[in-house]
Fold these 2 entries.
Entry 1:
Amino acid sequence: MSETLNPAAGDDRTINILQLYPRDMNIYGDWGNVLVLKQRLKWHGYTANVLDYNPGDGFPADVDLLVGGGGQDSGQVVIQEDLQTIAPALRAMAEDDVPMLAICGLYQLFGRFFKTHTGTVIPGIGLLDLETHGGTERLIGNVLSVSEEFGEIHGYENHSGQTFLGPGVKPLAQVRKGEGNNSKDTWEGARYRNVVASYLHGSLLPKNPAIADFLLQQAVIRKFGAFEPRPESASDLDELARLSELARQHASQRPR
Amino acid sequence: MSSFSVLTGKLVRSASKLRGGGSALPGLVVEKIDPDFIRRTLAGLPLGVAVVSGTNGKTTTTKMVVELLESQGLKVFTNRTGSNFTRGVAAALLGEVDWRGRLDADVAVLELDEAHAVHFVKLIQPRYSLLLNVLRDQLDRFGEIDKTTRLLEAIAKATTGTVVLNREDPRVASIAASLDRQEVRYFGLHESLRSTFPNDDEMRGSPAEAAAAVLPADVVLERVAETDADFRVDSTVVTTGLKLRGVYNIFNAAAALALARVIAGPQANNDALFTALSNVEPAFGRGESLVVNGQPLELVLVKNPSGFRLGLKSFAAHGYSTMIAINDNYADGRDMSWLWDVEFETLAENGVDMVTGVRAYDMALRLKYDDVPVAAIDPDITDALKKFIVSSGPSPMRIFCTYTAMLAVRRELSKITTVEVVS
C-alpha cells in the first residue's frame, strides 16, 4: 500500500517513508509519527510517499526515512524472525545515515537483545548498542525529559522492559518526570548517527516537532543535498508551532 | 448483622444522594462492614447472575439485555447507575433490597469493568457471561490488549452456564478455545458489514479475519439503516425499527438479543423481544439527545480509537455544529496517543466549532494534522460550552466527549435543560 500526496510537477521532491511492521507494531498511536512526518513534509513543499513493510514483504529500495513503533508481546513474536532477515539491510541503512525513528518495542529490538524476566533471551538486531531486561514492574505515565539537541521532550511511557545503553550510543534525553529507559539511571531513549530511539508515545512527534524536523531534514539533505523548504502557506506552520507549544505547556502540567 | 449493614448502607446512600455525591460510596461502606453482602444477596436469584463485559458498549448493551428480559416478564436487577465496579453493584443492590437484605428479582444482569469483573467472579460465579470486544482502551491501566483478553477469559472460565462471544472480534472469539465445561454461543455480523466494524488488528490495514464466517452465530446483524435494522435469528430475518443511534449500538443489540434469548430459554417470545428492542433508548452519553435553546444536542461518549471512529462514522457531521471535549483524568486514560489512531477527515468539510477539555490543545493539534479547521479552543469546559451553544445558533449540536468531560458537560447542561440525573 502506498499513497502519494501533493505530487510535485517537474522536479522530484519526494521522500520515501517506510513504516516498519505497521500491522503488528502499531500500538499507542504510532501512526501519528508517520502522519506528522508526511504532513510536515507537505507543508515544507515536499512530497511524502508512505510505504508499509510487513513480515514476508519484499524490502523496498530507496527508503529515505524509516519509522518503527511499539507492539504488544504477541506482535513482537510475529515480527521477530522476519526482523532478523532484514537486519543486515537495516544496519547498513543506519550506517549510511538514513534517519530512523524507533519507538518502544522496536527501540528494544534495535538493541542487542531482550532478556525476559524468566530468562529467555530474544536476540535484537544490534543496530543500537543497548540491551533490555524484562522487569516485573511496568513503567507507566507522563514523561518530561530534556535533550541538548531537541530541548524539552514530552511523551507518555508504558513498558516493562528496562533498557541500558552501551558506550556505542548516547542517550536521547535526561528524564525530569517519569522513569525513561529504566528505573535505575535517568536516561531516556538513545541516539546514534541519524537514529532517534525512544520509549515515548503520545505520539512522540506531534508534541516534539524539533525531532520531526530533524528526521525529515536529514532525509531531505541526504537525498537532495540541501533542505530548501517551499511552504505553500506560512500560516499552516505558524499555527502548528503555536498549537504544538500550547500542547507541550499543558502536557508539562499534567500529573505523572 | 445483615439488617444492620443494609440499613447503614441505605442511610449512607440517601445521605450521599442528597450531597449529589458519587454512586459508589454507600457500596464502599457496606463492603467494609459486611463483605459478604453481595454474594449472599445474589446467590438466591432463581436465574442467577449474568455479567456483561468488554471494552466498548457495556452500558448500552446491559440496558438492552435488561429491557429485553423484562419483555419476557422477568424481574431484573441491574447496576443501572453506570458504576461498573464491585462497589457500584453493592450500591445498586442497596437501593433495591428490602431492609432484611432480600432482593425481589429473577435474575441479575450486571455491567462489569473488565479488570473489576475478574475479582467479582471470584466472589460470585455468574451463570451467564456476554463478552463484547477487546479494543484498545485505557492501555495505561491494563498495559496491553492481550492482557485485557486474559481478563475476559477469566470471566468466561468462571461462568457456570453459557458464555456468549463476539465471533467478529478475534481476541474474544479465541476465548472459546480455553473453555470446556461452558456452553458457547456467538453473535455476529453479515459479511457485508464487517468492514464497518474494524477490530483492533484491522485498524491499520490488516485484512479482515476470515475465521469469523465459519462460527455459527445465534444472532447476526444483517443490515443497518438510519432508523431500522435486520437481525437473523434462527434462520429468520427480522426487520425492526430502532431508537438507538450509532452502528456500534446496533451491533450490541445483536449481542443483547443473543444473551437475552439464552437466559429466557426455549420459550422465549421473539415478538416481545423485538418490540422491546425497538423501544430501547440509548444510555446516557451514548448518542442520547437533549434539547438546548430549542435545538437538539447529542452527546457521544468517546473513550478509545475504535469508539471514536465508529462515533464519527455513525453520526454524519453535515449540518451539525461540533464540539470535542478531551480530558485525561484516570477514568479517561492518561495517555493521549489514542487520538492519533482516529481519522478525523470526515470533520474537515464542516470543521469543528469548539475544542475543549484538559487536553484541548492535544486534540486541536491532532485535528490540524488532518487538515480539519478549528474555530475556537478553550480548555475550560464551562466557558467552552457556553460559547459553543451561542455560536451554534439555529444548528443542531453534537459533542464528542471523554468520560469525565461528559460528566462535566452534563453538569453544566443540567443548569439550562433537563438532563437525566445519574445517581
Entry 2:
Amino acid sequence: MTPPVLTSTGDALPRPEGLPGIVADLSSDQRAFKNVPWGKAMMWIFLVSDTFIFSCFLISYMTVRMSTTVPWPDPSEVFALTIAGHHIPLILIAIMTFILISSSGTMAMAVRFGYLKDRKTTFILLLITAALGASFVGMQAFEWTKLIVEDGVRPWGNPMGAAQFGSTFFMITGFHGTHVTIGVIFLIITAIKVIRGDLDNGRPGFMTGRKGKYEIVEIMGLYWHFVDLVWVFIFAVFYLW
Amino acid sequence: MAHVEGQQHPIGIYLKIWGLLFVLSTASYLVDYFNFEGYLRWSLIIVFMLLKAGLIVSVFMHMLWERLALVYVVVVPPVLLLVLLGIGALEADYTFFTRGIFFGAE
C-alpha cells in the first residue's frame, strides 16, 4: 500500500473587481461577502430592513400630509424656542442635529482607535458618543413634553391644524428616539467590554459563545451612524418641509 | 487593505467629513431661517439631505472601501422605495382631489 499522492489544489482564485466581481462574489461557494466578518454583514442586512421600516413611516407621512385639506402646522413655528428674549425658529431641532452629527464623529474615531487597540481612547470616545446620544434623547423628551403639555398636541388632533401632525410626529420621532435609546445602551455595553479588555482576550459576550473582537466596535458604529442617517432624513422632510 | 484588520483610515478624513456635515446642517437650517420658498427651498433641502446621507454612508460607514458585492446588496434594494414614493404621491393627490369634491362645497 503506497500512500496516496497529495495533489495541490492550488492557491485561492483571484478576486475580480467591478461588475464581474459582484457576480463572482455573490455566486461563490461558502460566503458571499469576502472580506467582512459575518457580524458586520448581518448588521448591514438588518440596517437595510430598518431602512424599509423608516421609509414606510416617512412615505406614509408624506401621503397623509399631501392629502389633507386642513393646513399643516408650521414646523418652523411649532419647534421655535425663545432663548434670552430672542424668538429663534427650529432652534432645538438644529441643536439636536448638531449633537447627533458630533456623536457620529466621535463614534467613527472610536472605531479607528479600537482597531489600533487603544483601549482607553476607544473607551472615552464611546462614552462621549453615549453621552451625546443620551442628551439627544433628553432634548427629545423636552420637545415632546412641550408639545404635549403646552401646545396640546395629541396623536388624534392638535389646536394648530391637521390632525395627522400628531400621529406622524409621535410615530416617527418616537421610533427614532427608541433607536437612539437602544444605541446608547449598547454603546455603554461596548465601552465596558473595551475597557475590561474583553476584545483583547477574546472573552465571549453574555449571550454568545463568539469571541470578542474589535470588529464589534465597528458593527456598533454602523448602527449608530444609521441612527444619525435616519435623523438626516427626518430633519429634512419633517422639520424643514 | 489586505493585511490590515477591519477598516483603518487616517483620522483626518473623519474630521473633514465631520466638518462638512456641520456645514451642510447649518446650510439646511439656514434654508428654513431665511424662509426660502418653493422649488428653491425644496431643491436645497433635498440636495443637502442627499449629500449628508452620502457622506455618512460612504465615509463613516466605510462604504467607499467595501467590496462592490456588499455595496450593491445594501444600496440597490432601497432604490425600490422610489416606487413606493411614487405610488404614495399619486394616491395622496387622488385623495386630496376627492376630499376637495366631497368637503370643498360646504
